[in-house]
Sequence to fold (68 residues):
Amino acid sequence: MNIAFFCPLWGFEHLPFEDFCTRVRKAGYDGVELALPLHDARRTAHIVDTLQEFGLKLIGQHWETTDP
Fold:
């Protein structure tokens, strides 16, 4: 069995995302937990590319559900 450790973005939103990923990697985490910006494809692509660059996995948060 493998156990992976993830660091939430919550509390670190003030940092540039690259700096956050640097801290996460240095701390030994396997990935991050955050909500991808659903209405900003460019920002989402940047986040995904940065995670790949740092070799970090993603747990995506979903909190924008609304009833029709």
